[in-house]
Amino acid sequence: MAETYLSASFGFTCTSAEMALLEEAFQAAAALNAECEPGEPTPELLAALPPTDQTDRWSGLLDLFCDPAFPDFGADLSGGNTLEAPAVCDVRIAGMIDFQPEPIGKLIHRCCRDTLKQGPIGFEWAETCSKPRIGEFGGGWCAIHADRVEMQLTREGLAEALRTEIPKAAALARFYGIWGDLPGHPAEDWRYEVANGDTRLGYWDWVVNRQEVAEILASTPFPD
User: Fold this and answer.
1) Is 223 exposed, middle or buried, given 0-12, 13-18 or 19+ CB atoms closer than 10 A?
2) Residue 14: phi, psi to the nearest 5?
3) Which of 28, 97, 142, 146 could share a disulfide with 116, CB 3.0–4.6 Å?
4) Minimal CA–CA distance to 140: which of 128, 151, 129?
């Protein structure tokens, strides 16, 4: 049997008021996940996480989670006021087993409005496995801006990179060498056309252009 882990540890600074909102949300989520009554949310938290169900004042918090029945951030929140600036808090969020990137990113976006106006907050997470199973290792990143939350898995970025084709000219230069020649397309012919003003292309782009023209001519039948 193999176990999969989601882990992360990151820090940032925010205002004391924003830290209070984060602490209240973490404490309430822990209570709700344990099926305990967390009490009434503060007006400040209700403003940051307005209820989506008027019969449940905690519904705005619960809607951060993929499954509202299990409101677990999978992480611990710690920190406190800095000595240099008492109105500013150092924040640390860390989880080693079941870190939940999406609800944490959304919570920071909702609770740290003033801080995000000064600049974005970001974090990364790792996905690991207790056994060397293919496809079970990866991770992702989250960038929290004042107007949006962006997230991507490393496997998504890898898939995009693998789908990206190398330009033909760059692929030829890589294979033959930047100063090499492709058989049938001597560099002397290219230099002759450059000298005559017939082309402004670099050698390998000139080669690709000739190949494409040859393909078009070969596939276009001439009229009888």
Assistant:
1) exposed
2) -150, 180
3) 146
4) 151
Looking up tokens 């596939």, which residue turns up? 219
Q: Which of 121, 129, 115, 81 lies closest to 101, judged by CA? A: 121
Structure-block tokens of residue 26? 């973490």
The structure tokens listed for 211 are: 């190949």
Domain parsing of the chain, residue ranges? 4-153, 168-218
**Residue 97: pLDDT band with limits 50, 70, 90:** very high
Distance CA 34, CA 144 (A): 29
Q: What are phi and psi of 113, to 5 degrees?
A: -60, -50
Do 151 and 141 form a contact (C-beta atoms < 8 A)? yes
Q: How far apart are CA 114 and CA 121, in angstroms?
A: 12
- pTM of the predicted model as reported, rounded to 2 decimal places: 0.72
Residue partners of 207: CB distance under 8 A and separation at least 6: 169, 172, 182, 185, 190
d(CA 28, CA 46): 12
